[in-house]
Amino acid sequence: MTTAKRDTYTPDTLLSVAVRVFNERGYDGTSMEHLSKAAGISKSSIYHHVAGKEELLRRAVSRALDGLFAVLDEPGAARGRAIERVEYVTRRTVEVLMDELPYVTLLLRVRGNTQTERWALERRREFDHRVADLLKAAAADGDLRTDVDIRVATRLLFGMVNSLVEWYRPQPGGDAERRQVVDTVVHMAFDGLRTSH
Questions:
Q1: pLDDT tens, position by position, 63-115
Q2: Among candidate residues 9, 95, 11, 98, the one with its CA nearest the CA of residue 60
Q3: Are the CB atoms for 4 and 41 separated by under 8 Å?
Q4: I need a surface site. Which of 30, 32, 67, 171 has the fewest CB within 10 A?
Q5: Phi, psi values for residue 10, rounded to 5°
Q6: Is 70 helix (H, G, I), strand (E, B) or coil?
Q7: Model pLDDT for residues 28-54, shown as the tens digit of each residue
Q8: Which H helix or E strand runs over 93?
């Protein structure tokens, strides 16, 4: 049985197992022994592919961050009125979160106890600032309500999007449900933020 697991073992499957264990036990509460048992391989097999658990953490949070930052480079995020761009970024951020749920969950749980965690927190802040800048631009364009504090609106928007990691669980064949969640988040956020022209 161990041989069969070894035959199907890849760095990607190890990463997937590590993310699951990190999310269950917390990064600090996870040892290489925990990872070894969960993956069904020896610790030396893990060390053959990675330097240690912090490298696994960096790969995992990089996957989440790469997905989020890629959204900012898409044409819908780069062109058009700021309100349309921030709405696009919000929609795509929710989709990335759903696609990379375990990885984004881990990203949102890092606390800054290691160099990798501090790097991830800094990258998250950079992403948040770029979205906040879009909201400020939308306000400057007159497309956001003037009675809404942009800083509060930004925090509420991120809070709503990020809360999906706590309750969203994808269902097999749940494309309609997925679209409904994305649409609901966008409508709830932007119906309340937009000025009525």
A1: 999 999 999 999 999 999 999 999 999 999 999 999 999 999 999 999 999 99
A2: 11
A3: no
A4: 171
A5: -140, 165
A6: helix
A7: 999 999 999 999 999 998 988 899 999
A8: helix 82-99
